[in-house]
Design brief:
504 residues; ibrinogen binding protein from staphylococcus aureus fold; five-stranded antiparallel sheet; 41% helix
Length: 504
């Protein structure tokens, strides 16, 4: 949400900043952090930190088509964006400008071109900001002794340096045209800064909400797809033959094959006990009748397990879908509220935090792909008091998916010492470690989902995921570099954690 400014308005703003910046020295040039943006920064936005004898100021300028921002703040300004991809232009500025003194803030007559003049040896430098809405750009120019200029850097890296041209002076007819000056916004510096900060804050909330809605809709789409697939698999399992009945029928006549009373061919025909009609039982002739009976019973158990797991999984996914749809509705309502009532954004931010803190769906915390994988993970998910995501696998399939696919090398991995059981992962990503409180939360969940609620004091090992290796041709893992926690389950604390699952 940038602004389009007339040259009169830009010259007035630049004049306000002149007293603050003239005589100060450049400290650094960097890309400012924008935590509410998915990327953590805004492309083509830069900040110059300058320090004088008594004060430090930060000049921020954004050069995007139809999205121009010019702001000067007291103090050091926003921090630098840690993960920002820096261009050759701002890297060059950060190399050349630090230590140089600002001698003058000037502007190009009757044009939307501002200049930051710097004292340099052997020739002075000028940073031009061309704030034409359709084609904004910045260029660093060296002013030579003969009065000519040499372009040494420009923000449009894809274009040649020599192609940069300052606007030509306007004709008398053009100068006679009325140039707008919005006194309601630009009556004084404080009014202007209040207006522009409010607009930037509104932009940040809208961007944050848009990022969240995008992620939530992606997760919702993936959950619905997984739910449909799970239901289809359960229906296929139900459509399989009644293997248990086949086993019963074949078992009733299995004694007839060795004696020669019945020939063992496929299909084996047996009389239906209720209707008397013939029942054809397909058999594998490479198996003996007894082995075939055992296989039918095994297939019956597999069918039952597939149907049960499919029903449980689809029911779980439907609950997750319902929760996500409710969250999307609330986020959309907050988006509308933000547009209507821009003054109360702190309340809106608080509501956003409540909606996302236990779901790990904040842009910037994880990539969209990671969030989709977390949402699709069939195991359990919780959040510690410090906001870290805890994932728990409840069986060998979920354990392997969690440990080998979702967890990364510097995430913390937990397992009950010396017993088979749940794998638990604390997602750390950029953090170096988790607090003791988070470790205790994860340890209690590990014991609970390993069936150890009544075990009393139990040892739980933890280590970084990079020290966990899958044993070849096995569903088990081995681990090293571990430490051990001795934990007794605190029922109140466990109930609070389990309550998250019922709400998600």
């Amino acid at each position: 949400m940038g602004f389009q400014w007339s040259w009169k308005e830009l010259h007035r703003i630049w004049g306000w900043y002149s007293d603050d910046l003239t005589g100060s020295f450049v400290e650094k040039v960097y890309i400012p952090a924008r935590p509410d943006r998915a990327a953590g920064f805004i492309k083509n936005e830069w900040a110059i930190r300058l320090s004088g004898r008594s004060q430090t100021h930060c000049l921020i300028f954004r050069l995007r088509p139809q999205e121009i921002i010019l702001d000067c703040r007291s103090g050091k300004g926003p921090s630098a964006a840690a993960g920002a991809s820096r261009s050759g232009f701002d890297l060059f500025l950060d190399k050349i400008l630090p230590g140089l003194k600002v001698t003058k803030l000037s502007h190009f007559p009757n044009e939307r071109v501002l200049a930051l003049e710097l004292q340099s040896s052997p020739h002075p430098l000028i940073l031009y900001l061309v704030l034409i809405p359709a084609q904004p750009e910045a260029a660093l120019i060296e002013k030579l002794s003969d009065g000519s200029h040499r372009v040494i850097a420009r923000s449009k890296m894809s274009e040649e340096l020599e192609d940069f041209k300052l606007p030509t002076p306007q004709s008398e007819v053009a100068l006679q045209k009325t140039v707008p000056l919005r006194e309601d916004i630009l009556s004084d510096r404080r009014t202007y800064e209040r207006h522009i900060r409010s607009a930037q804050d509104c932009e940040e909330v809208e961007s944050y909400l848009a990022g969240l809605l995008k992620i939530e809709n992606q997760i919702l789409k993936k959950l619905k797809s997984s739910c449909d697939l799970t239901k289809t698999q359960a229906l296929r399992a139900r459509a399989e033959p009644n293997y248990a009945l086949f086993g019963d029928y074949l078992k009733s006549v299995v004694h007839e094959f060795p004696s020669g009373l019945r020939e063992y061919t496929s299909p084996v025909i047996v009389e239906n006990w209720e209707t008397g009609e013939p029942v054809k039982i397909p058999v594998d002739l490479q198996l003996s009748p007894v082995e075939q009976v055992q296989k039918f019973y095994w297939l019956a158990k597999r069918k039952e397990k597939r149907m049960r797991e499919g029903d449980d999984r689809s029911a779980d996914l439907e609950l997750k879908i319902e929760a996500r749809e409710e969250r999307v509705r609330k986020l959309k309502a907050l988006s509308i509220e933000n547009l209507r009532a821009s003054a109360d954004r702190e309340k809106i931010r608080s509501e956003i935090e409540k909606l996302t803190e236990s779901q790990g769906s904040k842009p910037g915390h994880f990539s969209s792909k990671e969030l989709l994988n977390f949402a699709e993970f069939p195991g359990k998910r919780f959040a510690s008091k410090e906001g870290l995501t805890i994932l728990v696998g409840r069986n060998s399939k979920e354990n392997l998916e969690l440990t080998t696919r979702l967890a990364r090398g510097n995430d913390l991995w937990l397992h009950v010492k010396g017993r088979p059981g749940a794998h638990t992962v604390i997602i750390l990503r950029e953090r170096k470690n988790a607090s003791l409180e988070t470790l205790l939360d994860a340890a209690m969940l590990t014991i609970f989902y390993s069936g150890g609620k009544e075990w009393g004091k139990t040892d739980v090992d933890y280590t970084f995921r990079k020290y966990v290796k899958r044993i070849k041709n096995s569903t088990e893992v081995s681990y090293t570099q571990n430490k051990t926690l001795s934990v007794t389950i605190d029922q109140k604390r466990l109930n609070e954690l389990l309550g998250q699952d019922s709400q998600s």
